Give the backbone structure.
Amino acid sequence: MVRQQLKSSIISYCVIWGIAALLLLSCNQKPKTLPFFNSAEFSPEWISDDDAKFDAIHKIADFSFIDQNNQKVTNANFDGRLYVANFFFTTCPGICPQMTNNMAKLQDHYMDDDRIKFLSHSVTPWMDTVKQLRRYAKANGVVSKKWHLVTGDKEVIYNIARQSYFAEKQIGLQLDSDDFLHTENFLLVDHERRIRGIYNGTIDSEMERLMEDIDILFSNENL
């Protein structure tokens, strides 16, 4: 009798823990939701679509630039897609090579996935001509259909950098010490042009986090 009661207790114990494990696994597998970023402080905000603030979420402004193939690139090129944006210059000897290397890895990882593209803005457009961007693109394995290196009017680029992408003003090479813009940030922008993540583009582990977040958006937004 005692043995049978012990056996029953063990079975009940195993069943309870089995159910608990399944519940825990189910919770862990529930898709995460990425925040929105609405200010230069980069404070994450989780805003549901039934929130009064949802329609006021910050969005990247309309833009129009020229890429390495002398083609116009506008926000329409990214309609319905995610994209990763950054700011660089082709003669940068510091953080840009690592940023470009990491962006190239992202490009290669998502090469056959039309749901995402990449956009790099030159912060020295007076030097980064179309010819220079084309040379840089060739040297770094940039695939035109996937990754646009763009140039344009300096004031326009700097304005969208600071007002739309909240890029920090940092002094790099002393080319223009009054307002030279340089940032290591990669920004994940969703299909509605909303900022969903900020990552240090020089760090490999940050690229892993970025790819995880891209997959979350793919899942949550049904792209």
In short: Confidence is low (pLDDT under 50) at residues 9-28, 170-177. The CA atoms of residues 7 and 13 lie 10 Å apart.
